[in-house]
Amino acid sequence: MVGGGIFAVLGVAAEQAGGATPVAFAVAGAIAALTAYSYSKLSVRYPTAGGTVTFIDRVFGVEPLTGGVNIVLWAGYIAATGLYAAAFGHYAATLLPGDAETSALAFKSLAVLGVLVPWIINLANAGLIARTERAVVALKLTILLVVVAAGIPAATIDRLDPSSWSSPGAIVAAGMLIFVAYEGFELIANSSAEVRNPSHTLPRAYAWTIAIVVVLYVMISAVVVASLTPAEIRASADFALAEAASASLGGAGFTMVALSAVLATFSAINATLYGTARLSFTLATEGELPPEFQQREWNQPIGLHITAVLGVAIAVGLPLESISSLSSSIFLIVFGVVNLAAYRADHTTRVRRPISLAGFLGCVSSFVVLTAHNVRGDRQALVVLVALISSALVGETFVLRRRRQAQDDSTGS
Question: Could you list the pLDDT tens digit for every one of the 413 residues in the chain?
Fold first, then answer.
């Protein structure tokens, strides 16, 4: 969860919510916590590497609507790849010599490079980064905690005063804009089949994961908002965490956080490319993508190459706020369906239905708030989202129709 998201979206939230940024992160964390409860129950009931795809298909069946949701999930990871690539480009550009104009020109090349190199790594040895992931996570957490510890004495607490808060609607919208920073918890489900004593371990894994990350994000966002003026946040929104580190630790702090962000987003891109290649393959085996997606090009599922190309296009074609909004909207849709699946699951799942219902309603209402925000100020993200959902539903209808026709022909023969 503490991957590239927090580096990418912190400035976006601070621009929207002002002194209430920690509240925005807490609101998003509450929705994530409700959803994690549903995931924990479904992970125990359906322990499989299929994760979200399996939950939706087992509860609702393989239909155009459920298949479309699963395709939208893939689109969410494509958007997340674009988000991490954009953050990689922005932070890497700050480490280059030159003025702001030079950094802006370098951004697109660096964003492309941020996807190209992990794509090559996945072609050559997909596990290369995965084997160092524990060290990368330890480094990220250490640097973030150093920033928090150093930032508290230098913080201007008045900047967190309620008088500096945005409106309640803007605070909730900001929380939903950065919801993508929490989405990684659902990947626990993909490892559920390998967990010993899953009924004991999985619920605790989800609970501790959410609790730790919410506390960490709230602390980080509080330090950032209390360290920078609103004007400084607007000027450095794409790399606000590094700018906040420089306020307490000087140039060394800026460089330390920027390097950590480059490493974190690079690792996140690699992991996302690896995961989406397998996701597209799983969808094809479930019959929700054409069988061609089970084929391999350059020894990898073709979903890997599609994710890389579209991720680059999103990174260089949309502003960071639009990418964050697009990613968060998609995961709110998917998580809403998963909460509904937990609510609808049979009694053996042992779900406390009011909690899953609250998660479903929370995701739906949050999506409505975010959509209203996009209608007012970010129609690019809304247009792309509508295009993605429409394409997924229409395409899935044709895929399943062709599959069922093939099955009928086979039965008839």
Answer: 776 778 888 888 888 888 899 999 999 999 999 999 999 999 999 988 888 988 998 899 878 888 888 888 999 999 999 999 998 998 888 888 766 556 667 888 999 999 999 898 888 765 665 666 777 778 888 888 888 888 888 778 888 888 878 888 888 888 998 898 898 888 888 888 888 888 999 999 999 999 999 999 999 889 888 888 878 887 787 788 888 888 888 888 888 888 888 888 888 888 888 888 888 888 888 788 887 788 777 778 888 899 999 999 999 988 888 899 899 999 999 999 999 999 999 888 899 999 999 999 999 999 999 998 888 877 888 888 888 888 888 887 877 677 666 655 555 54
> How far are the Cα atoms of 23, 118, 135, 232, 242 from residue 92, in angstroms, in the given order?
29, 15, 20, 19, 11
Residue 153 CB contacts under 8 Å (≥ 6 apart), including other chains: 248
Assigned token pair, 193: 């089949």
**Contact residues for 38 (Cβ-Cβ < 8 A; gap 6+):** 338, 339, 341, 342, 343, 351, 355, 356, 359
Structural domains of the chain, count: 1
Which residues, including other chains, have CB under 8 Å from residue 146's CB and lie 6 or more apart? 249, 256
Whether the model pTM is above 0.85: yes
Residue 412: its H or E element: helix 379-412
For residue 246, give both structure tokens: 């420089």
How does DSSP classify residue 144?
Answer: H
Secondary structure class of 53 (helix, strand, coil)? helix
Range of the structural domain that residue 165 is part of? 5-412
Other CB atoms within 10 A of residue 69 CB: 27
CATH code, domain with 286: 1.20.1740.10
